[in-house]
């Protein structure tokens, strides 16, 4: 009788432990999913609305613009807002940037650069090498979001006037390098803020077994280089 009682008690304890572990895992998964959605909203919608605000700001500050130029800036702002709606729709469906789905990685980057250049407030120079064929979807998404985050920082915080973006893909790795002429930032304070844009960016890169290198100081431009090994990423998935 005592043996059966102890056995039932141990069984109930085991069940409770398993239930607790499952509950903890479910909560942790929910927290991670919320973080991921927050990153997508910040990186995607934030960048698009920044572009719209930039165009509207130019309209406000430069009253001497021609009517044709005003129409172009207003049209660009409306286009950015429309894209934000599309992006929100896609995020709610599958958290995939609409531009990546429709145009591919290289096409999405070119479209992004063209949109920013329409404002004529910051000049984006884009160079791409070796981007023949599709990348792994997770890598494409992470790099595209990285560009959005770094461009958003250059516009909103660094007040840069030039933004150079270079993507180089080889058989073994892909490298993303950006450089702006903005006012820079304090790296120690920026990376110590969980939930911030650069903090999230570093987490994304590290989750792909990649490396991120940042050369930044206050009152000086910023250079960011991201290197992701394509071989390591493939091996991790097998």
Molecular structure report:
The protein is of the alpha+beta class and 238 residues long. Helix content is 64%, strand content 16%. It has 7 helices and 5 strands. The protein has a 5-stranded mixed sheet with strand order 1-2-3-5-4. A hairpin with a 6-residue loop joins strand 4 (210-215) and strand 5.
* CATH class category: Alpha Beta
Q: Identify the strand order in the major beta sheet.
A: 1-2-3-5-4
Rg computed from alpha carbons, rounded to a whole number of angstroms: 23 Å
Shape: elongated
Largest sheet: 5 strands, mixed
Structural class: alpha+beta
- Residue fraction in strands: 15-25%
Supply the number of structural domains.
Answer: 1
Mean of pLDDT: 79
Full CATH superfamily name = Histidine kinase-like ATPase, C-terminal domain
CATH topology category name: Heat Shock Protein 90
- Terminal-residue CA separation: 50 Å
SSE sequence, one letter per element: HHHEHEEHHEEH
The count of strands amounts to 5
Given the structure, what is the number of helices? 7
CATH architecture assignment: 2-Layer Sandwich
Low-confidence stretches: 233-238
Amount of helix: 55-70%
């Amino acid at each position: 009788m005592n043996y059966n009682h102890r056995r039932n008690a141990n069984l109930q304890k085991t069940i409770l432990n398993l239930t607790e572990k499952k509950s903890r895992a479910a909560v942790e998964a929910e927290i991670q999913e919320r973080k991921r959605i927050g990153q997508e909203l910040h990186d995607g919608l934030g960048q698009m609305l920044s572009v719209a605000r930039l165009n509207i700001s130019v309209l406000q500050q430069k009253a001497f613009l021609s009517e044709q130029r005003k129409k172009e800036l207003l049209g660009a702002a409306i286009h950015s807002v429309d894209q934000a709606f599309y992006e929100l729709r896609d995020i709610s469906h599958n958290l995939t940037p609409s531009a990546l789905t429709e145009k591919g990685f290289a096409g999405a980057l070119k479209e992004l650069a063209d949109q920013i250049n329409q404002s004529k407030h910051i000049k984006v120079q884009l160079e791409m090498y070796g981007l023949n064929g599709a990348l792994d979807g997770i890598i494409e998404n992470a790099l595209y979001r990285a560009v959005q985050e770094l461009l958003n920082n250059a516009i909103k915080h660094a007040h840069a006037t030039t933004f150079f973006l270079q993507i180089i893909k080889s058989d073994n790795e892909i490298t993303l390098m950006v450089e702006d002429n903005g006012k820079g930032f304090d790296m120690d304070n920026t990376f110590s803020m969980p939930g911030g844009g650069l903090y999230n960016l570093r987490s994304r890169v590290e989750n792909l077994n990649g490396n991120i290198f940042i050369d930044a100081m206050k009152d000086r431009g910023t250079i960011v280089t991201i290197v992701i090994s394509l071989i390591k990423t493939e091996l991790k998935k097998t």
